[in-house]
Amino acid sequence: MTGPDTRRLLGSAAAVRHQSARQRGRLAAEFDQRLVDAEVRDTRSRLALEARRRAGTAAAVLFDAEFLAIADAAAVAHAILDAALTSADACDLQILHRVC
Fold this sequence. Notes:
Elements lengths: L3 H52 L9 H6 L2 H14 L14
């Protein structure tokens, strides 16, 4: 094969190589994101457990200064649900979502 056929095949092979490189990059990024997500979940769990150990109950975690100083919104929501489902005698949980 010579001429146009060779150029077409070489172009096709180059396109496949580029697509493979992009796919490898995407897969590596997804893997890295999964690791970050797992670390965040683990940190939130440890944060809540440590605060619960200091405070004594799941509900008291919501008033723990160290917990509230470093917890993000998801960790606080997790702590609220944990308190409502494990230690509250009665619960009227209302979630307010503000749209700015």
